[in-house]
Amino acid sequence: MSDDHLHIPVDAAFSRRVPIHDDRERLVCDSCEYVIYENPKIVVGVVATWQGKILLVKRAIEPRKGFWTLPAGYLELNESAEDGACREAWEEARAKLVINQVMAVYSIPRISQIQIIYRAALTTPDIGPGPESQEVGLFTWQDIPWDQIAFPSVHWALRQYDQIKNQKAFPSFTNPTGEGEVI
Amino acid sequence: MSDDHLHIPVDAAFSRRVPIHDDRERLVCDSCEYVIYENPKIVVGVVATWQGKILLVKRAIEPRKGFWTLPAGYLELNESAEDGACREAWEEARAKLVINQVMAVYSIPRISQIQIIYRAALTTPDIGPGPESQEVGLFTWQDIPWDQIAFPSVHWALRQYDQIKNQKAFPSFTNPTGEGEVI
Ligand SMILES: [Zn+2]
Ligand SMILES: [Zn+2]
């Protein structure tokens, strides 16, 4: 499986067909047989806190515009997962933070998505909405807008964070049992 | 960002250009402006043991043909990370196993790769080479072929596994400090 996907010529055209030596339809270059593999996507995000309060952002874009979520987004090419999580926290909440440890690895196979969520600490309470956020806030547990949460995995991460918030180190979580769980 | 990449028409042709409302070159459908995002890839793998011995496979394919590695490979579409890790262990080593917990999440940004490694237990010592393996084996620590290991991250995973092999639960690892580490 080639890792040369950054070297596709600018004028290449691709068609969906079964490449040589393969058994599935792929996106194949019409002139050189280069194959683009369609892969699951990686979302990186954080449960980040300041003095026990949890950072949430209100989405300014679809899907789930107007609902609250954790800072998270797609990992980019040539980016570490930790860098991606920090970048998203900056882009969405103008938050600066220090990653503490992997909090959870979730699988959402229906949409071919893996979510890697870190526990993190804000280094300053100065936050503000980025272009994809309507609003940002630091919430105590009881002030979290539970009926306006954007995605099920945000519920998972918040509940799991609450279990380990006072632990110095902890085994990372996966999908809660019964919710898209596989093991 | 669309998740409709499974619905690309069979006859679509794609060119590399800057799509509407974007600022980077992407692969864009010539007829409908559908964008294929090129994303980092997810590798899923296991440190799997039977009575304290670690499962390794000798690669029958490039890169690093003839070198030893942990069962691991690219996550497929619509697959959970745990299912993918078990599938790779079956494909490469005919191994049946039970996932225990996330052992490590590594970032290899140079090749846009995230590796999710689980600790696992073989449910039977019956193993054998799959089509992409020359050989498989269960190794004690001192019998591991240390000078014939395929990739740096296999060294990372083996060393980190050794640190936690007697622990019931443990915080998951990331890249070892100084080796592509970012935090
Ligand atoms: Zn080509
Ligand atoms: Zn189209």
From TrEMBL, chains A, B:
Gene3D superfamilies: 2.20.70.10, Nucleoside Triphosphate Pyrophosphohydrolase (3.90.79.10). InterPro entries: NUDIX_hydrolase-like_dom_sf, NUDIX_hydrolase_dom, Nudix_N. Residues 39-162 form the Nudix hydrolase domain. It comes from the Bacteria. Pfam families: NUDIX (PF00293), Zn_ribbon_Nudix (PF14803). PANTHER family: NUDIX HYDROLASE 23 (PTHR43222), NUDIX HYDROLASE 23, CHLOROPLASTIC (PTHR43222:SF2). This is NUDIX domain-containing protein. It comes from Kiloniella antarctica.
